[in-house]
User: What shape does this take?
Amino acid sequence: MPGLLSHRALSSVLGLLGLVAAFVLTTAVPARAGESVFIEVTPNSVQAGSRVNLRAGCDANNNRQAQVTSDAFGRVTLRSNNGFLTGSVTVPGNKAPGDYPVNLDCANGNTASTMLTVLNMSQPSKGPATGGGGTAGGRGAGSLLLVGGLAAVAVVAGVSARRKPGGRA
Assistant: This one.
């Protein structure tokens, strides 16, 4: 009867494990994902006139819209997208350079903020006027040189063809 004893022992151990598992499952507090409030601006330093992307989290309330405000761009509504709140906005081209707070107001009353830096990078000037650039593929002196060279080759070929053989001995 040694087989019967080991079967009873195994049944007891499995029963005990089942009771422990049931206790753990009924008393555990479920984890709540996404419990954080934040606002991100990407990129966080931009030239005036550039577009920025906004991504935010409002605790477990990311299925409702949220408002973002900033003196850099005004007011934007963020909408739910893959578990986050997202949106994008263009900083006006005439916005003065500086650091601007970006404030998130969640529907559940939570708030967060970050900074956006607007840069004042002047547009690059044109290069110096150094010539027509005809050899770079434009219609300038390079094209004229090419046509003139082809004409010279044609003239030489024509003169060579007119010569009569037999003039020499």
The longest helix spans residues 2-27. The CA atoms of residues 135 and 142 lie 5 Å apart. Residues 16-34 have pLDDT under 50 and may be disordered. DSSP finds two helices and eight strands in the chain.
